[in-house]
Design goal:
The chain has 164 residues and is mainly beta. The protein has one helix and 15 strands, in the order H-E-E-E-E-E-E-E-E-E-E-E-E-E-E-E.
């Protein structure tokens, strides 16, 4: 089961976050996660691109695909507007939220932000249980789980139920 979960995580990351629009048959729902500010929707994947709209915190959007840390999205509005947002402000809707996990190998870094370059805020020892309350992705499309102490790269965790 441990290998099946890791394989599922790898497949999810590779098919959901790196797929091209030509190959996509389904879109993935994500929730806008900001610290109270609206998220700018742009006409191109760039901070310098024209702002064409805004998404409010908690709003659900469809991820069409990810490119260089930017998510091409469709908002759930009557017009179904499309645009680009920074992928770091999206939380992927998944059945993994709220589940308990253990570190797979040795101790695992807990980071301040969902990024491999973020500062380490704590360590999760091998075998220590933690609950993941939110799933997010970084600019490279890596899945991160938010715990009470910070962010952990999901590939370093195994579901508690899958441990024999």
């Amino acid at each position: 089961m441990k290998k099946a979960f890791i394989l599922l995580t790898v497949l999810l990351a590779s098919t959901v976050f790196f797929y091209s629009p030509a190959l996509a048959e389904e879109t993935i729902t994500a929730t806008v996660v900001t610290r109270g500010d609206d998220l700018n929707v742009r006409d191109n994947p760039s901070k310098r691109a024209v702002i064409i709209g805004r998404c409010t915190p908690g709003e659900e959007v469809e991820i069409i695909y990810i490119q260089d840390g930017w998510a091409h999205i469709r908002a759930f509005t009557e017009s179904g507007d499309r645009g680009w947002v920074s992928a770091e402000y999206l939380s992927v809707s998944t059945e993994l939220n709220g589940l308990y996990f253990n570190a797979t190998n040795g101790r695992v870094r807990i980071r301040q932000k969902p990024s491999e370059s973020a500062k380490t805020s704590a360590w999760l020892p091998k075998g220590k249980e933690t609950q993941v309350n939110q799933i997010s992705l970084d600019v490279n499309g890596n899945l991160w789980g938010r715990t009470s102490k910070g962010w952990i790269l999901m590939e370093c965790l195994v579901r508690k139920e899958d441990i024999s």
